[in-house]
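Incident log, structure service

09:12 report received: a user says their structure output differs between two submissions of the same chain.
09:20 pulled the input from the user's history:
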Amino acid sequence: MRVAILAHEKFPDGAKTALGVLRYADYEVAAVLDRDRPADRVNDLVPDVRDAPIVSGVSDLDPDAADALLIGIAPVGGGFEDGWREDVRTALERGWDVVSGLHYFLEDDEEFAALAAEYGGELRDVRRPHDDVTVAEGVAGEVDAEVILTVGTDCNVGKMTATMELARAAEERGHDAAVIPTGQTGIMIEGWGNPVDRVVSDFTAGAVEEMIVAKGDEHDYLFVEGQGTIIHPAYSAVTCGILHGSRADKLVLCHEAGRETIAHGYDTAIPPIPTYVDLYEGLAEPVSPARVHAGALNTYGIDDDGAARDAVEEYADALGAPATDLVRFGAEGVLDALL
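09:34 re-ran on a clean worker, output below:
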């Protein structure tokens, strides 16, 4: 599929879905849409992902340049901004599909639904759970695969990235590995999954368990995409549901270098790293014991490689386990601790 990625006024730092798709998905990317950077190319800003032009809007592209418009922004609350409406409207009038991971469902928007019906495009709301999700039965631990879950010190510290990097590194070593996608970006990359932050609270663990059971006897390793953090005032319930639903065998603790307070405006300090280890391992213990075997440190905000390596060493010492920046320095040592 050929896609244009909408990332208005957010690319690259505020468009993690766009970056995830550029880095890991198999789509052909026609362009990234950002009104603030209409003359740039992707690699001018992010050199280690696939390149594409950055344009102001869908109208700047040839009608045959893409088959779909993908919403590449994941705002807090998952709302739809009216400033995006013209691009979605133009895409639908061209017969393109529109793929969205928002909590705002495009299928329920009367204007978009009418345009999709008139011009033959499809609205795909990947954050809409299927109707048959139910409570967990506690059977995820019975699968043949080893289950490895990324957990975090906060939201947006790199859990999805760590999951993708580790799964691909394992495959490159010749292991049969698969990703279990639990969020909109992972679902867009992998083409399937359950959006666990959208299911009914009682069904969160069941939504994860369903995927583990579906894939657990087909692969040797399952890398589960974590969400949120266990101490986040808004999102801890999702984090706990994934932990218990996956019945993980091993945990990878993800952190962003320099992060001091919880994301999205909460006045909650990031506790010491050993506190997180105790919290995650203690919460897992009664259901399905799992230890933190490794760490993934996001050093994106550190320009110098030497300073980034120092930050990784400090993090590994605090964690008491192997750690690295998986994108910057590769997965070797961390993968050795997991496989």
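09:41 both user submissions now match this output. Likely a transient worker issue. Closing.
09:42 reviewer note: The chain has twelve helices and twelve strands. The domain at 140-338 is CATH 3.40.50.300 (Rossmann fold).
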